[in-house]
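hiii so um. not sure if this is the right channel but i have a protein structure encoded as tokens and i wanna go backwards to a sequence. like what aa goes where. can anyone help
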């Protein structure tokens, strides 16, 4: 599916409605041609649908869960972000990735941060799953995991432990550390994601209660195992790793471009 419930002319899920030259911030942004800078600017983000039908992950994640999680929670974050952006033009021109980093404000989040990050997090989470997912990674991703974790079993154990020891709400991520040039498992609280530390996210698992409670009640271990064994998209991981190699030289193995 992959459609966006906003004006189809919106580039990268960002709809630019009239233009105004914004005050300078210490973060790069796109600028409109000078002729468009005289009028008011409002930036709207649209609600993207998951890349599969809402019942496509059954029986491991129910259609009802997707209807509530995507259709209500995710939508609420999009609406909340747009309400913040209506108040002024200072954040005009940012991609969603840039908006997350800018509003994190070096650990002193601006009011827009939680909604912006949660919109990003949910889009990334939906795309971290696929029907008939799970199994083993391939095309170099498995070799990279074995190189950095010792074995795929070690990776799964570390990922599962991180999910089950996460206090409160948040996410678990497989990320590529730019400076260390290796994969790592990290966990984040609430809306925070690894972009704010300049890590490159590869896979994520939503550990907010509304992500699993309808299907698994309080059995978080069953939810995590279901994700790892039946839903995680190693195809998405391969594509993200291939793109990451444009910025980080991992040496061998090489991840082919999908």
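sure thing!! here u go:
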């Amino acid at each position: 599916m992959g459609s966006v419930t906003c004006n189809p002319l919106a580039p990268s899920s960002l709809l630019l409605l009239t233009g105004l030259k914004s005050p300078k911030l210490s973060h790069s942004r796109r600028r409109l041609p000078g002729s468009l800078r005289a009028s008011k600017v409002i930036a709207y983000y649209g609600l993207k649908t998951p890349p599969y039908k809402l019942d496509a992950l059954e029986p491991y994640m129910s259609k009802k869960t997707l209807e509530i999680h995507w259709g209500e929670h995710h939508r609420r974050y999009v609406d909340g972000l747009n309400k913040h952006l209506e108040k002024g033009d200072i954040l005009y021109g940012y991609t969603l990735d840039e908006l997350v980093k800018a509003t994190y404000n070096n650990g002193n989040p601006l009011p827009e941060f939680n909604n912006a990050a949660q919109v990003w997090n949910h889009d990334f989470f939906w795309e971290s799953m696929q029907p008939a997912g799970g199994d083993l990674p391939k095309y170099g991703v498995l070799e990279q995991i074995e190189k950095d974790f010792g074995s795929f079993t070690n990776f799964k154990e570390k990922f599962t432990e991180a999910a089950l020891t996460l206090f409160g709400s948040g996410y678990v991520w497989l990320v590529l550390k730019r400076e260390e040039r290796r994969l790592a498992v990290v966990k984040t609280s609430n809306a925070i994601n690894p972009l704010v530390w300049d890590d490159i996210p590869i896979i994520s698992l939503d550990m907010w209660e509304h992500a699993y409670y309808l299907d698994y009640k309080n059995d978080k271990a069953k939810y995590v195992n279901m994700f790892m064994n039946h839903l995680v998209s190693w195809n998405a991981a391969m594509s993200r790793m291939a793109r990451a190699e444009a910025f980080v030289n991992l040496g061998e193995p090489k991840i082919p471009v999908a």
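oh and Residues 11 and 109 are 26 Å apart (CA to CA).
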